[in-house]
Each structure stands twice: as C-alpha cells, then as structure tokens.
C-alpha cells in the first residue's frame, strides 16, 4: 500500500463521520491480512496512536473493529513498538477512569495476546516477561471485575502457550491468583481456578508443591464456606487433570479430606464437585487413589440413588410405573403428583457425578468380577432414573463395564468389527469356541457368568427405558445393546420380543440418527446370534427394516441393506427351516434395489453384495430365477463404476458350497478377466484374481471346464513382480490352479515360467508369496503341459542368474534353493543324484561366495523335500559338507547358510541328522552357536509330512536336553537357545514349563536370563493352549525385574 494511501486512511481514522472511521480501519485490516501494507516509522507511530485513541470511540462498531485491527497489527510491529503498544493497553486498563474504557482495553490486550504470531521474530516469551509484572500488578490492585476476568484469561493463555519454557518467578503472582479465587463473583473465581490449574502445570516441582499445599490448606480453611470450598475443590480437580503425574504425591491427603467432606456435607452442589474430583483422581492418577477405592465406592453407591424429592417403586413387576409418560409431549420425567420445582432440585447433579465416577472406577479398576458385584446390579436398577441426562451417564457406566469385559476377548474369538465383509462370506461366530475360551480360566469364567446373570434384568430395564421419547436415551440403549452382543454373543436372542417395541418405534422415528443406531444394532445382533434363537421374533421387525431400504436418506438406506445382509448370513449359517415368504421378500427387495440406477453408490454396492450373499446361501432354491440373477451381476461387469462390487458378489457366489450351477455366466465373466488384469487398477486386479481363483476352486457345476483361458493366462507374467507381492501371490496361485486343472485351455506356459524364475531373484519373496511360487513350480513339474524343459535345463535356468547378480542376497538364494528342491521332488532320485555331487564340488572348490551359498542352501533344501537323494549308497554325505563350511576361514554368511542347511536336512530326516547335530554340540564348543541355530531351523520349520511330524514329537525330549545344556553359553547362542526353549514349551507346556521355571530358579544368572527370554517367545497376541499355564507362572518370571544381575531385569522388562 502506498504512503499516500496510508496517509489518507490515517486521516480518515480521525474523521467526525463514524462510517469513515469504520471503513478506514476495515481497509487497514484487509491490507494487514493480505500483507500488502508497507509502513515507515512515522506512519506506524501514527497508526498505533490512532488505533489506541479509537478504543474510546463513541461508536461500538468502530470499537469492536479497532480491537480486531490492533490484534492484527501487533504481529507486524518490531519489538520496541510492540512493547509500547501492549504496555499502553495495560496502562489503559489500570488507569482509565471509565469502566468501559478499561473493559475495551482489556479485551484488546486479550485478543492481541491470544492471536500473537509475530512476523518480526519477536519471541512470545519476551512478551510474557515484559507484560506479566504489569498484569500481576493490575490483578493485585484492580477492583473492576470485568477487567480482572479479562486479565485472568490473558494470564491463563500465557501459561498454556509458553508451557514450562519460563520459570514464572513473578512477585505476587501466587497471591494474586489465590486472591481472585476467593472473589465474591463466580466468573472471576472460575477463571482464577483455571489460571491456578494452568499455573501449576508449568511451574517446577517445588513451586507446584507450594501451590498444591496452599490449595489443600484453603480447602481445610473454608470447610464452613461452601462457595469457596467448591472453588478450591474444583481447583484441585483442574490441577489433577493438568498435572496428574505430579499431583499423585499429594493425592492421599486430598482424597481423605474429600471423603470427609462427602460424608459430612448435605449440600448437593458441594458433593457434586467433590465426586467430580474423585472421578478425575481415577482418570489421571489411578494408582495413587487405589487405597481409597472402597471408601469412594461406598459414597458413590449411596449417592447414585440420592433423590430425596422422588419416590421410586422398586418392584420389577411394576416397572411401567417408573417409566416415562408416553403422553408427555416433551418426553419429561416429571411426577404429576409432586409439587417441587426442578429449578430447586439439584440432586440430579449428584447422581450424575456419581455415575461418571462409577464409570471412572470401572475403567481403571481391573477387577472385573468385583466391578460386576459392586456396581453391575446397582447400575441396572438405577436405569429407572427419572432424569434423562443422568440415565445416559448410568448407561455409560454400564457400557464401560461391558467394554472392559470385551477387552478380554481376542479378535480371533469375536472379531472387533462384525460388519459383513464384502470380500468374503460372513464367518459364523462359534459359540463352542467362545465357551471354551471362557472356561479356560476360572477368573474369566466368573466375570462372564456375572455378566450373563445380569443380562435378563438389563434387558428388562432397557426395554422399559426405550419407552422414552428422548432420542439421546434411545440411542444410548442401542449403543449399550450393541456392545452387549459383541461381548456376549447369543445373549439376547430369545429376549428380542421384549425389545421389539423399542426397535419398531426407533425404526419409524423421524430422526435419521435414531434409525442409524437401531439398524447398526440389528446388523450386529444378526451377526452374533443363530437364526433359531430369534426366528419367532424377527418377522415383527424385518418389515420395518425392509421399508427403510428405500429411505430418502442414503445412509439409512445403506445401513438397512447392511442389516439385511447380516440377516441373510445369519440365516445361511443356521440349521433352522427357512420361511419361504421371508426369503421371497428379501430376494424381491434386493432385485428391485439392484435394478435402480440412480441411487447412492454405497447403497448400490451393499445391495450387490447382498445379492451375492443371498445367491450364495439360497441359490439352490432359486430355480429359474438363479440364471437371471447371475446374468444381472455379470452385466454389471460392463459398468466401470459397479464392476468392483459385482466382482466381489460373484466371488462370494463362486465360493458357495450350495449345489447350484454358474455355468450360464462363466464364459461371459471370464471374457473380462484379461482386460481387467491389464488395467493399472490394483483393486480391480485383486478382485479379478480372487474371482478367477474362486471359480477355479469351485467343485460344483460352473467352473472353467470348456472355457478358453488363454486371454487370462497370458496376462499373468506382467503381474509377477516384487512391487506388489499380494497380486503376485494371487497370480501364482491362479496359475497353479489353471496348470493343474486346465492345461489344454491356457496356451503357452513358458512366459509364466520365465517370470517365475525372474521373481525368485527378489529378496522380498517370502512367506505366502514364496509358498505360492513353490506351489506353482510343484504343479508345473508334475503336469503334462507341453515344452517342459528337462531337469538339468530347468536347474540351469535357476543357477545362471547367480552369476549375473551384482549383490549378495541370502533370502533370494534360499528361494532359488527351495525352487530347485521343489522341481527335484517331481523327478526320479536317479535324475537328481548327479546334481547333488555337482553341488558338493561347488561348495568345496568354488571361488565365489554367491555360488557356494546357493549350493549349500540347495543341498539343505533337497534334504528337506527329497531326503531319498541322500539315502543311496552313492549319495554324498550332506552333513559333512555343511560342517565343512564352519571352518574359521569361511565367510560368516556361508557359515549361517550351512547352519540353516543342516537344520533343513534334519527336518527331512530327523532320525539320521538330529543325533549328528546333538553330538556336534557336545564335541565342538567353537561351533555351538551354528549348531544350535541348525536346531532352531528344525524346531521352527513345518514338517514335510505327518510321519516326520510324529518323529519330531517323539524326539522332543532329546532336543530339549541337547539345548538346555547350552543355556549358559555365550550371549548370541543363549538368544537362539531361548527361542528354541520357548517354541518347545509351546508344544508341550505341561511338561516343559515347570522345567523352565526350575531354570529360572538357577543360581547361574545366564541360565535365568535365558529362561526369561524363552518366556517372551511363548507370548502371543492370539490365544494358544499354553495361555492358562503361562498365566500361572508369569508372576514368578516377573520377579526377574528385581534380579541383582543386570541382564535379567533388562529381559524381565
């Protein structure tokens, strides 16, 4: 902005016309926001002077805009003028005669501090140092309440923004804050309370203790002054919230005092604030408040029922008398016969605070059984509460109890998300597995038994609470029910009729959110219950669900289809006889929705999945409608937007075990595969491959028989790369299926084989991808496809890549070795024998590390997959070749590869090679680490067949004895030993876990640390049979934290 323009605006700021003044300030603000203003020293001074004068402008609009402009301008000022402007505002606050002037100056200073973001690199900390003494002085001397409120806000913001970067050693700050905490005006007391809490958060430990001790003394001092006592109790709560880790040292004194206050005081508002402190103690310092749990629990239990102005009927048979009057238009809970005013009754605040405190206790006290015994029945009983907001908090408390119980259940027993997965058929929750899981542990069983015992009364109370017209309470009932069925499946199936009234009312409610909560509950309910459990009560509800499938709100329509899909899956997994009328209704609804073109994409996709679920579940009963339904889905493959969901739906159908044919659509569906695989859309490729695999694996009519698959197979090579291993895995699996089942329909296989050989070069090919690659090679070797290379030529194609590699990659060498062994398994022993002798020569005489590493790994993998090649009289002795690589002159990588190869040999022939390894461990101490590593390979590898597995199990004792003797070896050896011990314990925990405990009691600290590390290898995220025994001995191993030797505590932590 030019200097002429600046001068013009400054002149207009002094105009007698308020509009000129207003527009001048507005233009300056816009220039500041756009950073288009340039100010020299004179203009800047004039601008500051005019803006400070306009704070006293007689026009309120000009004043308000002036405050905003000042808060923007300070960010453009260099340090001297910035200090001058802020100090001028502070001086105006203190010295102005008119209250309005002091007030507007305080607001301007507050806005300037809160929005401070200097463009001149002025530190906010320096601003605080400059202003704080002046602000403290104002607080100490000012009697203007509105100004004091603003100053307290400013100081609180300063504390929050600077954190502990400043020491805040300002004279009188403590006294000023405590002085205003005792103000007669509530607003000032509240702001002083907030400032004290923030101040306590940023000061050092010594100053923090001074503040907390003073707050405690004030609490004791004002025991007879309710208003000030409430302020200091609330201050305690705020300090605990902001600084829980430091406050816990002082917490016992406050807890005892507040318990005393609650027991003595009859004032509801004081008890509310005190119970709020208890809640914060549990949330922020749960360990420190643990000794007072019982006393606090007694208080909140008593006060949860504190309602002196209302009489409840405790009879369950008369629950309707306690419910909300349905004729009440506003959904209030007032008792018509009572003559008290709700404005006078604040007891609900006490009950609400008690409910929240109970929730905090439940969340942070881990004794679930005690929580159920102490609070469960009480909370259910108190759901008859007349105040809706209190009732919500009571439900939240019980919800916390259920959610804490849910944490006991691993995802493998009950998935955390029970939404129907569009990519595969919904898997039924096994109640047998669930019950086994509960019964594994006595304490766990007691918890679930306590919950199960309370479910009937909980359902009755919820059913009664659903008679309210308060939507928040209704929503909360469905949230609670949803949590219940995900924690305890099959818990309310027979009670569905009791809930049907509330469900129907909510489904017909005008509130869209209410419908969503209800539909989500129904979807979860269907997913966690067998259809036989609720068959008699569901027909009263499903018609309302069907109606909502056409709701104008797309989210409601989507959730309705989700619930229907979940119902279909529940019906499919049930042995109950189906109602033909209900099946017809579902089919007609899905077909009619499927054929609608102008609807939300999410609804369209879920409808498509629903049709897939329905055909998959009941396709054998559709008759002539089946082909029509399949053709509709196949047609959707032509539409770019809908083809993804159509592919998933067809995959669901193809995986069905029902007896129906897909033959009518297989040719048209297959014709799209090549095109879809060429597209650079990852999701489309995955869905296409998944469908192709599902059709290829299909044993019912409607697979790839007689279909031209060349256009699909020819696209597989481009998918075989390590940039996307998931797609590579699927493509390899599909290629293996097609080569095995339809070798005459797929065209040339050599391009795929070449891509597979190149893929083995990648170090990333491991796990499932490696397994799929070996599966393809195994199938290819045994198939009758044409132009297959001879065994020697095949091996040569793998080996020739070694000489061209520019970097060493043992994982890639291992993949190549496994590939060669897989190919060898499909050939005669006499064909493979010459290869073993060549490998022996390479290991003993080759010059390069790469070719030697590949050769020794191949020798090991041949022993794993083709042990017969070493059983002939003319066979080489692979164990001696492996041990020859342990010489000190050999490279470390070659030694590790040889160790792995020795373990692989033992996997294939445990009777021959295990004794050799154990003997070597005893005799060759210098090679002990490598030999133990070979045992690790034997223990952690999957056996080739059931016979070898049985042999391994019969030799576990021998292996255990061979390994346990090395528990005090060197550190590198001990870590491998510990892993082996942990894995062996998992195989027979009853026998070996006590032995591991004995090891932990050894006087040798190295043995103790090995036992401790072994326990770490036994701990898994998923439930395992050893869990129950492991839980019993874990406390013994936790004692390792106190071990005098430094290594053991480290492993214990």
TrEMBL record:
Keyword field contains Repeat: yes
Pfam families reported in the protein's UniProt record: TPR_CAND1 (PF25782)
Gene3D superfamilies per record: Leucine-rich Repeat Variant
Region (Disordered): 312-345
Keywords linked to the UniProt accession: Repeat, Ubl conjugation pathway
Compositionally biased intervals (Acidic residues): 313-345
Keyword Repeat: yes
Family annotation (InterPro entries): ARM-like (IPR011989), ARM-type_fold (IPR016024), CAND1/CAND2 (IPR039852)
GO terms under biological process: SCF complex assembly
This protein's name: TATA-binding protein interacting (TIP20) domain-containing protein
